Amino acid sequence: MPSLTFVINGDGAARTTLEELAADLPNVRFSGYQPAERLAEVLATGDIHLVPLKAGLGRVSVPSKTYSILAAGRPVLAAIDPGTEVPRILAESGGGICVAPDDPGAFRKALQHLADDTAGRDEMGVAGRRWVEHAASPAAIAQAYADLIVELNRHR
């Protein structure tokens, strides 16, 4: 996808392998680990954020970056097992698209759709941000716990 620029942040174990695989791709850039105080800047930089997991990992992992990306008002393209938490979050929030993991054709098609649909991307970003504020922000979580405590006390 030569019209897109891909930025891969971090210094994980796969970085060297990924750099070797992308050596001939002029639109793939690597950036080292970014400190926590730059997280908002990193998230604001991308038009689309990717959350890929290998098949089977979606059942045991919810990448926390999903919440951060939605909070930043950016759309998510996730390649994660259907029926797991990230697809549920994206369906409920309207903040992104999920495809099955390890399906490069579906991933590419969804990415091209997001790249071509600027207005739709913006709508997903707004919807995702709104969902985080109402369902996953510290205030929303505190309220959910308070409501649960009140409900449990009613049944004593």
How is this structure best described in words?
The chain has 156 residues and is α/β, with parallel strands linked by helices. It is built from seven helices and five strands, in the order βαβαβαβαβααα. The strands form two sheets. Strands 3-4-5 form a three-stranded parallel beta sheet, with helices on both faces. A two-stranded parallel sheet has the order 1-2. β4, α4 and β5 (96-99) form a beta-alpha-beta unit. α6 packs across α7. The protein is elongated. It starts with 5 loop residues before the first strand and ends with a helix. The model has no long low-confidence stretch (mean pLDDT 92).
Salient structural properties:
alpha/beta, two-stranded parallel ribbon, 156 residues, single chain, three-stranded parallel sheet, 51% helix
Structural class from helices and strands?
Answer: alpha/beta
How many β-strands, per DSSP?
Answer: 5
Based on Cα principal axes, name the global outline: elongated
List the strand order in the largest sheet.
Answer: 3-4-5
Mean pLDDT: 92
How far apart the termini lie comes to 60 Å
Low-confidence parts, pLDDT < 50 over ≥5 residues? none
